[in-house]
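Pilot study result, target chain (367 residues):
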Amino acid sequence: MTTRPDIDDYLSLFLNNTPMMDVRAPVEAKRGSFPNTVNRPLLDDEQRKLIGICYKQKGESEAIQLGLNLATTDIREQRYKVWSEFCHQNPEGYLFCFRGGLRSRTTQQWLNELGIHYPLVTGGYKAMRRFLLDELEISLNTLNIINITGPTGSGKTRLLKMLKHHVDFEGLANHRGSAFGRSPTDTQPSNIDWENAVSVAMLKHRHTYPKEVLFIEDESKLIGRVCMAQNVEKMCKRAPLVMLEETMKTRVTMTREDYIDTLWPEYLSLYSEQAEEKFSAYVLGALSRIKKRLGGLRFSQLNQDFEFALKEFYQNKSSDGFSNGIEILLRDYYDPMYQYQRANREDKIIFRGNRDEVIDWAKQQNL
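Predicted structure:
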């Protein structure tokens, strides 16, 4: 492996999707890391805790010695294995810890003992996080961003993915943004992970297509469990709007396709014999989360409709039975809520149309 120098060019790391090895403890990585990064810790959570206590009570030299004592032969062999695998699979990558200090240097030293000379990111996580926060602020204030809005079920995400220049907030959050929006695995990134991913996506657009319009989808502050950063939320509220308008029939069909037809194969693949139980829990559980807003009578009727539709779906593989309930949800629950949220933003609408009309209009913006 060719020897490469350590790096502090954070811009190139993110623009080039450079693979990175995060050697912080798992608890740190779970709070937030970066795209194209895997966690291969030097210390596990308990070791990190013990060494941190030692450092505060006895100083750095004692903490280092404790670290060496904890690094048994078995632990070293395990670290060597996963680190060397990453290095060989990613010869152009880098490693980092929190500040690019002791843990990064120790990892480098251990790798050197194996004959692997692998560079680190100077400044580590802290410096890269600061860089992305600063760059996100620049992006939010300089990019020409247009917000795709429209009632629930109008196909905003479908439309967004058909536009060349876009950032998919829901995709990065692994959630569709509604009560029914969680993924089959119900896994979402941390707020920091999401914010970093948004910053990188906007950074790439700014450096590659600085004059082109960037499209986003109108979102509320919460996308599932991901809480949108305040500056991103403010940008969404001030950005000009394109209103996607579709008929109720089209909206019902797309909602049924997105939340029933498309999701069911994923549940079947993940859960096999338990798929029906899990899928029913997802559909009826999502409905129960909005029970108070629906009201007792309407909730009971919809719950009964969806239970019947699920049985029919499992027997006949047809999702048509959901159509009536979906229309009621769209018309009586989601539409009034959307109209309330949009009430003070009518003046920001710069175009209205169905999907084909919006696509044609969007192409004209980037000529």
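One observation from the pilot: Residues 296-316 form the longest helix (21 residues). A full batch analysis is planned for the follow-on phase.
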